[in-house]
Records
---
Amino acid sequence: MARFGFIHDKLDIKLLILYIMDRVAAPIDFATLTDLSMCDSGVDYFQFAEAAAELTDSGHLDRQGDIYSVTEKGRRACAAGESSLSPVVRQRCDRRLAPLNQALKRKAQVRARVEEAPQGFDVCLSMDDDQGSLFSLTLLSPTGEDAQRIADRFLAHPDRVYNGLLGVLLTDDEGRQPQ
């Protein structure tokens, strides 16, 4: 059966997978890798799944459960072979990776965890930017449900929490910010 597209065989698919994994901001699951790899009509799912398994077996990819990451061996192979991937395919991959990488970066910079404490539950919230830590805060919650709700809301709206804290801390008793 004739296939159209820029990807023609399993070697092309392996290079595509390595290209994607070399550029993704954090380890990803198999479903996400699959979605990113289906950027060309020449990619066959079964050849893709086989290629991913072979890259894992050969040490080009590392698999922890359902989470994949590229190894140093995979990075070297990508650097050596990525120029043989069509520029069109590379551009498609880069466009698909941009929103994912932004979300992965945000997830890494905003963290919340709930820990059981003697008096209830500690909710540990932290937020970083590219330069380092912006803030970290630990709150005590009487119940695990409340603690989890606080953590979830912080993860959903970290900018509102950060700006709210700054607004309270930088405003005087009459609601004015110092000059």
---
Amino acid sequence: MQPYFMPYIGYWQLMKAVDTYVIFDYVNYIKRGWVNRNNILVGGQKHLFSISLKDASQNKHFNEIMIADDFQKFLKTIRFNYQKAPYFDSVMQLLEQIVSCSDKTLSVFLMNSFQEVLNYLEIQTKLILSSSVDKDNSLKGSDKILDICKRLGATTYYNAIGGQELYDKDKFQVEGIELYFVETPIVEYPQLGKEFIPYLSLIDVLMNNSIEDVNRILDNYRLI
């Protein structure tokens, strides 16, 4: 999967469900996508935050783009809006640690953020950058995915629910690999707002739930 900054729970469900998670960094960056932005609660309403990048272009790979943000505005927004959340102190410390990563290469920075969150949640999934895998870079689409799966010795491949439009189960099965899609239901949990708003950044989930409860939420998915 392509990396994103503190994405919604479906992304983390996928990451927790597997033993090895490959971060697609040797693919083109998607402009105006969700790579560097997501939603949190501000004043009880859904609010889009974004982090700034340097010379971001769809003609560049993730590992060719740099983080330009100093995160001061981001951290200030989080502090102001989540200071009354039950797990504010521990999650704020986690976020400060994430944004202080010294390597500002987009792919490495995001991979480090994943690892920090996995460590916090005590999840053992192994993370790999696709650029570190010896593979055939001329391949496209599902052929590229299958090549990486084979080189890593995979027998089962999980993808996000949106992948149903891109990948064919029969094609994977012919190659000896079972393909499943992770479907994320709406899982309500305590929020600071009056009305529950689903599918926000994991930041909201972490701020309002214990490590045990977050893991229960991440385990609440369906394989299709």
